[in-house]
């Protein structure tokens, strides 16, 4: 059995290797050997349509109508979205919209409140 490093985030000893990543089952942290702790969260800066930096837990407003695939209704301009969560990928905001449900949005279509 290989000697695996402890999790840099929660110091758990129950880490395992998944291809080229180390994974912590307790806090779901993923890292590569030699990477700094929490590097993906701190280096990635996501900005809204006006250039304001977005953070987890912010409230935003839609700046244009957005059509949603598979839904007969669209999200209207001015819809308020509370408590956003930033994620990696093309749609970099994960949120719940009242009356609509869970959604992923692009930061270029929102402005910070």
TrEMBL record:
Protein YjdM N-terminal domain mapped to chain residues: 4-32
NCBIfam families found in the cross-reference section: phnA
Protein name from the UniProt record:
Alkylphosphonate utilization protein
- Organism the protein comes from: Clostridium estertheticum subsp. estertheticum
Q: What range(s) does the Protein YjdM C-terminal domain occupy?
A: 46-112
The record, for PANTHER family, names: PROTEIN YJDM (PTHR30305:SF3), PROTEIN YJDM-RELATED (PTHR30305)
Task: Supply the source organism's classification.
Answer: Bacteria, Bacillati, Bacillota, Clostridia, Eubacteriales
Q: Which residues form a coiled coil?
A: none
InterPro entries according to UniProt: YjdM (IPR004624), YjdM_C (IPR013988), YjdM_N (IPR013987)
Short name of one Pfam family for this protein?
Answer: YjdM
Q: Which domain of life is it from?
A: Bacteria
